[in-house]
Amino acid sequence: MDVSLDKIADPALAEMGKNLKEAMKMLEDSQRRTEEENGKKLSGDIPGPLQGSGQDMVSILQLVQNLMHGDEDEEPQSARIQNIGEQGHIALLGHSLGAYISTLDKERLRKLTTRILSDTTLWLCRIFRYENGCAYFHEDEREGLAKICRLAIHSRYEDFVVDGFNVLYNKKPVIYLSAAARPGLGQYLCNQLGLPFPCLSRVPCNTMFGSQHQMDVALLEKLIKDDIERGKLPLLLVANAGTAAVGHTDKIGRLKELCEQYGIWLHVEGVNLATLALGYVSSSVLAATKCDSMTLTPGPWLGLPAVPAVTLYKHDDPALTLVAGLTSNKPADKLRALPLWLSLQYLGLDGIVERIKHACQLSQRLQESLKKVNHIKILVEDELSSPVVVFRFFQELPGSDPVLKTVPAPNMAPSTVGREGHSCDALNRWLGEQLKQLVPVSGLTVMDLEAEGVCVRFSPLTTAAVLGTRGEDVDQLVACIESRLPVLTCTLQLREEFKQEVTRTAGLLHVDDPNWPGIGVVRYEHATDDKNSLKLDPEGGKIHAGLLKKLNELESDLTFKMGPEYKSMKSCIYIGMASDDIDIPELVETIAVTAREIEENSRLLENMTEVVRKGIQEAQVQLQKANEERLLEEGVLRQIPVVGSVLNWFSPVQPSQKGRTFNLTAGSLESTEHTYVYKVQDTGVTPPQTPSGTRTKLRFPGQKPFKKSLRGSDALSETSSVSHIEDLEKMEHLSSGQEQEALEANSPEQHPGAPAPQEAEQTGTFQNRAQGPEDDRPQMRNQGPES
């Protein structure tokens, strides 16, 4: 309650109250400032986007766009951009509608979610011929199989709910997976179910008959019998209707009979299940409709983004399905089917069938085209039904089978077969990467198969609807393959010749690098190279860096690069692929000679540095000695400042100009007296030229290095071949005639006025003559007045 101080009669009390009011005001202002500073400090700890009263929608969407496409300064990435059509927008709308629908009251929400779930389940079962099935919608493709395994465990172990893993310990379950199953599937199941890895049984594929990517049924039956004898319980079998690698389908009909015989749950998954929606279905895939459960992925098949995968199953006990997690009473779990519910209605049956049929037609189109292409092998189980095309480049060696890992030639050593197989692997990897860059909408993938090696896979069922692949893209893909075949065949043919030539050349070492698709890899062994060491070699790195620079300056059609040796740190020269006939001996000799010249030049520079240092020291000693001799010759009196000046005036001394010059070529210290007396500078000994290669090759105008001579080329006509041969002969005659004229011009008999060699020595003149080895050169001496 505020009381006015003016009404207080006592002035002392009024003054005290006034002072108290001012003090309280000061304290309140100080507290207010402290609170404001604490508020600013607290807001400083909050991230920038959350400070203040929030941001507008335009700024938030701009931030999302920058995060999606990256900054302008960053280099654009060549990632596949999904083709989101109108059906894609419908699927994305389903997620927004799901969030909105979740705000409805419970009763209306329950009715709506039940209707969406039942409709979607019925439509999928009818489209993919799976009658009287239930559906479980999940984000991870493997999650449905994990739930099915839980259902199988609860069905076979009645006391599992009460006793838990004690019942599993007494009778261990066994889950059978094909050796061709997708990687990591078994480990995922064990982690989700809490089972040890011995509960997994890997079933090998066929080795003698049938596809090498199909499960061996006879061996599977033997494994089942052995597990039963050991007291184990065969629980579940995962079959493939289109393996993850090559799209092969297991013998599902025979596997179903085997599972019914031993009471095993049969689950089927694979891309070929999409063909169940077509009018014609192969018998092997059609048998999947009789299995206990199957996993479908309609999102990639139909080009629908953010659409869940679906696991269809048959089971009569709703209590067990609820315990296993296949059914749920939560409306949010049922709303997972909303995007697919909207998309299926938008596409209709015709749209669904058209997209799957289009993908199968693309694969058949590529198969028919690749049959007409040489050096391309197609690894297809059934050309009429498989929607996956896997192909590989191969080269037939003379007198042998095609170069494949699985078919070694009888007359070839195992090392040769393995080396050629690795060569084809590197070339196929290069081919796959080239095709992916040239035709990105094809959706190709490069994979390494255990038996066949590196192959290229075309699976339009998983990529065509997303990337918008058309028939013209398949034709372009075939054209790109044909355009790269000459490079592949030529490179593979030159590999062995290059290795043999490098082996025969001194100073060069051939390096076997299975990952390099070019002609080969070579390393120059310098004088101080430790062959047994795998560590980095600085001197060798300098030599190879200079060699790479020299090779690139030649402007040939070959590409050269430097890198570490395979399984080592030493530098090597990698030679790229060749599209035409290359003169391998010339290439190898050029590499050897150039590397040798670089090593000699570097060694000469190191030796010259040492020689110059010693020469400077010797020159200092000789100059000091000359100063002492001059002191003795002039006398001590001439060194006194005043007396020396008087003596020099009466009796001047004629100083002798004695200097020193260092001959870099000879590496010796010489006197400069000859230069000052005769006004002539001695040229010294002419250094010998660095030896070059023994092969000298005349080139036609415009012919690039390392190209074979056009004399034997079939591409030239007979007239042009003759004209080129005549030009070559004229050039050879012209060069030989010029050499003859030069020899005649330098001959003493043709020039009577020229002095003889003996006369040249006596007069002290120099004459340039053809120099032989350094030991055989005549020593030219300067004959001065002293002689």
From TrEMBL:
<dbReference type="InterPro" id="IPR055102">
    <property type="entry name" value="PDXDC1-like_3rd"/>
</dbReference>
<feature type="region of interest" description="Disordered">
    <location>
        <begin position="28"/>
        <end position="49"/>
    </location>
</feature>
<dbReference type="InterPro" id="IPR002129">
    <property type="entry name" value="PyrdxlP-dep_de-COase"/>
</dbReference>
<comment type="similarity">
    <text>Belongs to the group II decarboxylase family.</text>
</comment>
<dbReference type="InterPro" id="IPR055103">
    <property type="entry name" value="PDXDC1-like_2nd"/>
</dbReference>
<dbReference type="InterPro" id="IPR015424">
    <property type="entry name" value="PyrdxlP-dep_Trfase"/>
</dbReference>
<keyword id="KW-0663">Pyridoxal phosphate</keyword>
<protein>
    <recommendedName>
        <fullName>Pyridoxal-dependent decarboxylase domain-containing protein 1</fullName>
    </recommendedName>
</protein>
<dbReference type="GO" id="GO:0030170">
    <property type="term" value="F:pyridoxal phosphate binding"/>
</dbReference>
<dbReference type="GO" id="GO:0016831">
    <property type="term" value="F:carboxy-lyase activity"/>
</dbReference>
<feature type="region of interest" description="Disordered">
    <location>
        <begin position="682"/>
        <end position="787"/>
    </location>
</feature>
<feature type="compositionally biased region" description="Basic and acidic residues">
    <location>
        <begin position="724"/>
        <end position="733"/>
    </location>
</feature>
<keyword id="KW-0456">Lyase</keyword>
<keyword id="KW-0210">Decarboxylase</keyword>
<feature type="domain" description="PDXDC1-like third">
    <location>
        <begin position="498"/>
        <end position="603"/>
    </location>
</feature>
<feature type="domain" description="PDXDC1/PDXD2 second">
    <location>
        <begin position="386"/>
        <end position="492"/>
    </location>
</feature>
<dbReference type="Pfam" id="PF00282">
    <property type="entry name" value="Pyridoxal_deC"/>
</dbReference>
<dbReference type="GO" id="GO:0019752">
    <property type="term" value="P:carboxylic acid metabolic process"/>
</dbReference>
<dbReference type="InterPro" id="IPR015421">
    <property type="entry name" value="PyrdxlP-dep_Trfase_major"/>
</dbReference>
<dbReference type="Pfam" id="PF22937">
    <property type="entry name" value="PDXDC1-like_cen2"/>
</dbReference>
<dbReference type="Pfam" id="PF22930">
    <property type="entry name" value="PDXDC1-like_cen"/>
</dbReference>
<feature type="compositionally biased region" description="Polar residues">
    <location>
        <begin position="683"/>
        <end position="695"/>
    </location>
</feature>
<feature type="compositionally biased region" description="Basic and acidic residues">
    <location>
        <begin position="28"/>
        <end position="43"/>
    </location>
</feature>
<dbReference type="InterPro" id="IPR050477">
    <property type="entry name" value="GrpII_AminoAcid_Decarb"/>
</dbReference>
<feature type="compositionally biased region" description="Polar residues">
    <location>
        <begin position="760"/>
        <end position="770"/>
    </location>
</feature>
